[in-house]
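[User] Could I get a sequence and structure tokens?

[Assistant]
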Amino acid sequence: MRAAPLTTVTVAGESDVFAMRQVGREVAAALGMSQQDQIRVATALSELGREIVIEGASGMVVAFALDLDDLVMEVSFPDAAARHVAEGVTMAGRLMDVVDAGERGRVVLRKRLPASASALSVAQIRTKVNAMAPSSALDELRQQNHELASTLEAVRQLNAELEETNQGVMALYNQLSAELEETNRGVVALYAELDEKSMQLREASDAKNRFWATVSHELRTPLNSIIGLVRLLTGPGGDPLGEEQARQVELIGSSAETLLTLVSELLDIGKAESGRLDPQFTTVDLVALAERLRMTVGPAQSTDRVTLRVVVPPPPFTMPADEAMLTRILRNLLANSLKFTQEGEVVLEVAHDQAAGETVFTVADTGIGIPAEHLERVFEEFYQVPGPAQTRAKGTGLGLAYARRLAEAMGGTLTLASTPGEGTTAVLRLPYESHDVPVAQRILVADDDENFRAGVRRMLTGFAAHIDEAPDGAAALAAMAAAPPDLALLDLLMPGLDGTAVLQRMADDERLRKVPVIIVTLAQTHRRPERAEAVLGKQGLRRDVLLNAIRQALGSRDE
């Protein structure tokens, strides 16, 4: 649809500029534009006309037309004046919705009509504009003064509204600041309370460990004396005892040995909780160990309806481990299985898992089983599954908790699977890498949790020749600067310099840029940082998962 022409104005001198300004304002008013838009249209036209007149040119023509929802003003002027209207075009661009000055000697201005545009027809608008009486320069100047005064009043009103708004914003800001300050004080108080509670917990834990260590030590001495005296009484050098006396003395000795075992378990659990349970690795003959267990645990069975079977590959079948710890773990597992199995069999099976780099000990029975809701709770100290079986089979509830602590101390894991009424399977996994052939020369463990670092150090035993530790990001960077590792295990949430900042510092350091990093964190993140090779969760971290991730990270950097 073509634009409908409204009127045309020719500018030949200064008086015509005022006339053009008046026409522009009246056309805008007839179309229902606001007073501010009327002023914008008039000002844009007068600026272009002023530039033309100042340059001494004449023959400027402005054609007004209505194009759908736009007022269109096509301004034509002599080519000689084209280079002098740039300032006027710039001003018009600030006032109009569209300014097209692409064609030489022609500028098209567009101003969008308001939603409440005049309902007058094009013919009525033409008649109204044509009937308009021309005004003098003084009249137009008076009109401009009125417009300026009106604009100033609008600006003053706007400033008043802005001032009121600013006061409201400042009041809201002050309120939010006060609330934030109050919240901060509450957070600081909460942190102080948490620090106090943490200190109390540490003191309680230290007191408990001291109690266990002291009591265990004080109990061991008389128990060892009792066991020694029983051996003297029943040994070949003692006076002959009657049958009933011998039975009672042997019962005293058996009870003393049971108490001594319990005391040793309590002491070792205390050491494990304080991170002082350090395994002494030697090469263990698994065939001989399994046979000793079969010989010592088997005769203690209370019924011949249960068979104890041992399945071990033929010798040589060895692994690096603390033999005393391993023996205690397996003895506990076998004793539990035999205690809660009325008929059937208990099987100890030993095998190597080449893919995971672990030795797997499986103790399976056909006993009463453990309900699913108790499978993890049985690893708590002194916890026993409620039921009639506990009445028949006495115990302290320390065996499985003790066994798991020993397994973790050697860098392994202990898990249970069970079906009530069908039996239970305990799986112990321990690393078997040779200490003489480490996979990595140096690994850095950066984490503010000392117990977690100790656990990872045990997992890496035999896998890495040197294991460096750092409690925070700054210490980690210092350790890596002193001796760049083959790989870094990094926690994201550390005090001071966190894991993300450490990754950035490593990226900026030429020596550390190529060191592979594995994130091991409690933070809930599913997005792997750009510099990290993998992200592992701390909760329930298994040694085989950790070592596989390290192997992949080292392999990817070698490619």
Remarks:
- The CA atoms of residues 368 and 420 lie 6 Å apart.
- The mean pLDDT is 80.
- The first helix runs from residue 14 to 30.
